[in-house]
Each structure stands twice: as C-alpha cells, then as structure tokens.
Design a protein that fits this description.
The structure is a single chain. With about 300 residues, the protein is an alpha/beta fold. The chain folds into two domains: about 5-215, P-loop containing nucleotide triphosphate hydrolases (Rossmann fold), CATH 3.40.50; about 225-304, Alpha-Beta Plaits, CATH 3.30.70.100. Helix content is about 35%, strand content about 30%. The chain contains eleven helices and 14 strands. It has helices at about 45-50, 70-80, 95-105, 110-120, 135-150, 165-180, 195, 215-220, 235-245, 265-275, 290-304, and strands at about 5-15, 15-30, 30-35, 60-65, 65, 80, 155-160, 185-190, 200-205, 210-215, 225-235, 250-255, 255-260, 280-290. Strands 6-7-8-3-9-10 form a six-stranded mixed sheet, with helices on both faces. Strands 2-1-4-5 form a four-stranded antiparallel sheet, covered by helices on one side. It has a four-stranded antiparallel sheet with strand order 12-13-11-14, with helices on both faces. Helix 3 (about 95-105) runs parallel beside helix 5 (about 135-150) and helix 5 (about 135-150) runs parallel beside helix 6. The longest helix is centred in the middle third of the chain and has 16 residues, at about 165-180. It starts with a strand and ends with a helix. Bound molecules: adenosine-5'-diphosphate (ADP). Adenosine-5'-diphosphate binds near residues 17, 40, 41 and 44.
C-alpha cells in the first residue's frame, strides 16, 4: 500500500451548515477513488479543501507527502482539478485553450504534450475548432486535457460527466481507465452509481459524513438484508402500501419494486398477503443481488 492522500478529521462549516463533519480516510497511489453521495452531501466541499481552494475549519490532509496547511502551493503544482465550473475560453480554439493552461502552469515545451493529449482524447481532428462550437462531451474532454497539461500525479474530478450524453460518458470513462495505466491517481465525485461501480474503492458520503468505504463489491456484500424484486400492478399503490404499513425499505424501478427483507421467508409471505388484500396483483418475485443503490438507500435510511 502506498498512501497518496491522507485525510485526517477534515471539517468545514458554512455558517451553521456543517458541510463536512470531521472525515478521515486515505487514498492509495494509482487507484480510482469515488466519493459518492446525494446533492449536498459535502463532496464538492471535500474536493475544494483537498485542492487548496477552501481552508478547512479544522483537521488536515497530506497529499503526495505534503501537508495541506503548510505546502498548499507545492500540492497545487502536482495535482489537476476539473471542477464543475471549469471554464474553457469559448473564443479560443482547442489548441489555444490547452496552450493557455500550459501557460498558467508554466509548462514551457508544451507542444508535444498537447499532441499526446489531443491524441489521447481523440480531439486532434478538431484542434482548430473554437471551444464554443464543441459538443458537451468534447468540451469535457478538452477540459480534461487542460487539466492534464502539467502532468499531475493526482487528478480531482468533480462530477466530470454530469450533463454529458451517455456515449460521451463512455468515451470519457475509457480515457480515465487509460490514465490509470499511467499511474495517475483519480479522486472523483459522482452522483451516478453505475460510475461508482467502476471505481476501485468508493466512499459513500451523506450529510457531511462517510457512511461506508470499501470496494463496490464489498460495500454491496455488507448488506445483511435480502433484496426481493416484485413485479406487480398497480405499482404505485403497492409502493405506498408497503411504505405506510411496513418498516421495509422499498424502492420503485419502473414496473418493479425492490424490497429489503431481513427474514425473507416469513416477511415475504406477510408482504404478499398485505398486497393481495389491497387488490395488488403480483406477477413475479425473486431475490436479486443488491445494487449499490439498494445499499446506499439502506445506509442513508439507517443514518437518519
Ligand atoms: P455536494 O458536492 O455533495 O453536493 P457540497 O459540498 O456542495 O455538497 O455542499 C455541502 C453542504 O454545504 C450543502 O448543504 C450546501 O448547501 C452547503 N454549501 C456548499 N457551499 C456553500 C457555500 N459557499 N455557502 C453556504 N453553504 C454552502
């Protein structure tokens, strides 16, 4: 194990809003680490503290062996940060945007690196196009190229694929996997649980706290309940009945419900009876492996 980010009791409030409540964890070199959680969980605040844009109220972090409090500028030289509000210059071309960021970072002989990055992000054919004329996915790839111009050892990505179409998202993820081969460490936030599945480890953040931290596989395995998927009609009525009359966690996905049961046989019988008595028709039910979403909802409910 080779720790590259060590977070110790990091805390930040805005007035009386406790955005990050004293979290501690480590990220290993070369891993893709995902900070996952609903809006307002404290993910961006965490990233902004780690990238030196925001001072923590208390606690500290060590990044690449440098102390965040005493060596903020040294850290900034070694990392890349793709924020949600990363701004490209719309009236500059792809080439000129990368040159601009090379300049900011004091990268002198940037042309070879720029070619590499354009190649890597498959933007070479468009290099003379103005940033304003690019699709959302291409803009995001260009932003990533700008973030990588100074060869950072760690990149921090704050919801990098939000608002990007599904095809470009896939493309973006391929690029990220290739970055891992170059031993770049990726610390990212995402609201998408399918993206979280691709991370080596994820920290589930809710209300300023880390409520689970492990590989996606282990996070899912930590659920003690069995998830039963029920196909029934009318679905909304079934959902409401379970919500109102039982303690079971229930989620609705299209025409099916996912219900978490601790004592499967007995509880399923009771549940079926309850639904039948209410006039709900059950077409099918089966135990399914828990998804990250199932586990996440469970952990958030438990934390309430
Ligand atoms: P996330 O990135 O998970 O959506 P944030 O870190 O942006 O969460 O926000 C965490 C909490 O802090 C939220 O309740 C949010 O409203 C609040 N918050 C974030 N930034 C500010 C700010 N500049 N001023 C006041 N409150 C803020």
């Amino acid at each position: 194990m080779n720790t590259i980010i060590k977070i110790e009791n990091l805390r930040k409030s805005y007035g009386n809003i406790s955005a990050v409540k004293g979290v501690s964890y480590s990220v290993e070199k070369g891993e893709m680490f995902g900070l996952v959680g609903p809006d307002g969980a404290g993910k961006s605040t965490t990233i902004r503290m780690l990238t030196g844009l925001l001072n923590p109220d208390s606690g500290n972090a060590e990044i690449l062996g440098f102390n965040l409090k005493t060596h903020k500028n040294k850290i900034k030289d070694e990392i890349g940060y793709l924020s949600q509000r990363f701004s490209l210059y719309g009236d500059l071309t792809i080439d000129e945007n990368i040159e601009f960021f090379a300049d900011i970072h004091g990268v002198k002989n940037f042309k070879e690196r720029r070619n590499e990055l354009l190649d890597f992000t498959r933007l070479t054919p468009f290099r003379d196009r103005l940033a304003d004329k690019l699709s959302g996915g291409m803009k995001q790839k260009l932003a990533l190229a700008c973030t990588l111009i100074h060869k950072p050892k760690i990149i921090f990505l704050d919801e990098p694929t939000t608002g990007v179409d599904p095809v470009s998202r896939r493309d973006f993820w391929k690029i990220l996997s290739n970055l891992l081969k170059e031993e770049i460490t990726i610390f990212m936030t995402t609201p998408y649980l399918d993206e979280a599945e691709r991370c080596n480890r994820i920290a589930l953040m809710n209300n300023g706290e880390i409520i689970s931290l492990d590989s996606p596989k282990n996070v899912k395995a930590s659920l003690k309940e069995k998830i039963v998927e029920i196909v029934c009609s009318p679905i909304r009525k079934a959902y409401d009945i379970i919500k109102i009359n039982t303690e079971f966690e229930v989620q609705m996905f299209g025409d099916r419900l996912n219900v978490a049961l601790q004592n499967y046989d007995e509880q399923l019988n009771n549940l079926r009876q309850l639904l039948r008595e209410a006039g709900v028709e059950i077409y099918d039910h089966r135990i399914i492996p828990p998804s990250l979403e199932n586990v996440f909802i469970h952990l958030i409910n438990k934390a309430l």
